[in-house]
Amino acid sequence: MDILEERIKKIEERNLKVEVDKAWETSWTRRLCVAIFTYLAISLYMLAVDIDRPWLNAIVPTVGFMISTLAIQPIKNIWIKINKK
User: Fold this and answer.
1) pTM confidence score
2) Burial of 58 (0-12, 13-18, 19+ CB in 10 A)
């Protein structure tokens, strides 16, 4: 019986980890951090290659990224419905 209880405990711990990872993947905190890092990386690149107003021009790809992260979940849900068997 101890073996079974240990297996159940490990499964529950794994499920908790998966739930926390999923919550992080869909969190606004993660999206905001990635958007900030994307903005900074693109701005610095534009600054390095001497593009006019890099801090302003870097907003466009950053906003594009944010829109794409919002659009992915509905597309994923449709894909799951189609491929669920």
Assistant:
1) 0.68
2) buried
